[in-house]
């Protein structure tokens, strides 16, 4: 089992996960040798994976059989895994927590060569339904504080498999970056009694130089302080703190907007590697000694998706300062992304 350790100087948690070194790699850059390695995510290889925990397919389908559209399986090489005790320990300066949590893979399509941007919106909606299902299941797990859903696309963005997939990781502590976002939204709300993201969306729409596109329900924008070239956010215009509360109709609308965002990135930047991250409400559970902790969450937080094309390298200055040097202004990036004809 992995272990979280806190660096006493930065307060940052690090996961020591020696098992992860044993992962297989099935990437387009490294085609498997004939006969000995096939893609375990392809239909027909269902018994090569861990048993599925969720799937979308016809009602008569047997679990772990073929004929699925989306399949969710526990990761065979998990960063965190289920365990009865989330033991917290401390030795002087050093804090440690067992790597208790969950790590799942969402196999997004039965087609090995499929590209998320090119999938029909109904199939993207199915992937989002899988995300919603897993968020709803995992919030009942007493060991979890946050459930992070993300997608690594291509090797340069951290993918070890070419077959289209995203990942779900439930963590035993709220990640420092997530906590900073939640805290900033909470403080803003306490000061103004308004949602920070709602205000940000209103301001961007009224000064639209960073808006890539806007529909009645969603906007796609390049954020004011983008860390990376062509960073884009997909934000719902109607306030909602929790992605898991969306209806099927809402998810169809997200799928339409997400497909548009992915297509614009793909066509503008020649199908770059990227990471996308779903920012949504944490697992809400009263904390001993902190009864006020999540009380205004439904008013102060606002879910959104961020996508970061991996076009630049993080180097010494970024590591040393946590400043990011972005050679493309978000205003230029929005202009380029807007020009794509879909
Ligand atoms: Zn495959
Ligand atoms: Zn809002």
Walk me through the structure.
With 342 residues, the protein is α+β, with helices and mostly antiparallel strands. The chain folds into two domains: 3-171, HIT-like (HIT family, subunit A); 178-339, HIT-like (HIT family, subunit A). Helices cover 26% and strands 21% of the residues. The protein contains seven helices and 14 strands. The chain has helices spanning 121-138, 176-192, 196-206, 248-269, 297-300, 316-321, 330-339, and strands at 3-6, 13-16, 54-56, 70-74, 88-91, 94-98, 102-107, 146-153, 165-171, 211-214, 218-221, 232-236, 274-279, 304-309. Strands 3-4-7-9-8-13-14-12-11-10 form a ten-stranded antiparallel sheet, with helices on both faces. A four-stranded antiparallel sheet has the order 2-1-6-5, with no helix packed on it. Strand 1 (3-6) and strand 2 (13-16) form a beta hairpin. The protein is globular. The termini are far apart. 35% of the residues are buried. Residues 31-36 have low confidence and may be disordered. Bound molecules: zinc ion (2 copies). One zinc ion (ZN) is lined by residues 39, 41-42, 112, 163. One zinc ion binds next to loops.
């Amino acid at each position: 089992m992995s272990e979280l350790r806190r660096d006493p100087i930065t307060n940052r948690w690090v996961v020591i996960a020696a098992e992860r070194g044993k992962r297989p790699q099935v990437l387009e850059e490294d085609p498997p040798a004939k006969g000995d390695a096939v893609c375990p995510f392809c239909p027909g290889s269902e018994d090569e994976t861990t048993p599925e925990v969720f799937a979308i397919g016809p009602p008569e389908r047997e679990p772990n059989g073929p004929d699925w559209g989306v399949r969710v399986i526990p990761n065979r090489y998990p960063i965190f895994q289920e365990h009865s005790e989330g033991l917290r320990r401390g030795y002087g300066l050093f804090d440690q927590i067992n790597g208790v949590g969950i790590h799942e893979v969402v196999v997004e399509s039965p087609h090995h060569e499929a590209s998320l941007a090119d999938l029909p919106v109904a199939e993207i909606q199915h992937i989002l339904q899988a995300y919603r299902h897993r968020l709803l299941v995992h919030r009942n797990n007493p060991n979890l504080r946050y459930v992070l859903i993300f997608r690594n696309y291509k090797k340069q963005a951290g993918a070890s498999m070419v077959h289209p997939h995203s990942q779900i990781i439930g963590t035993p502590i709220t990640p420092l970056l997530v906590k900073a976002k939640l805290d900033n939204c909470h403080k803003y709300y306490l000061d103004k009694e308004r949602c920070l993201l709602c205000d940000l969306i209103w301001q961007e729409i009224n000064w639209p130089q960073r808006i890539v596109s806007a529909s009645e329900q969603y906007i796609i924008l390049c954020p004011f302080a983008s860390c990376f070239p062509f960073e884009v956010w997909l934000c719902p215009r109607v306030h909602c703190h929790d992605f898991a509360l969306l209806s099927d109709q809402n998810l169809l609308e997200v799928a339409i907007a997400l497909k548009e965002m992915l297509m614009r990135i793909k066509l503008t930047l020649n199908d770059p590697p990227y990471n996308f991250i779903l920012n949504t409400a944490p697992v809400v559970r009263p904390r001993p000694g902190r009864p006020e902790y999540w009380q205004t969450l439904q008013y102060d937080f606002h879910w959104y998706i961020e996508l970061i094309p991996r076009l630049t390298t993080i180097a010494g200055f970024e590591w040393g300062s946590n400043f990011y040097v972005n050679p493309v202004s978000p205003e230029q990036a929005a202009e380029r992304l807007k020009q794509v004809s879909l």
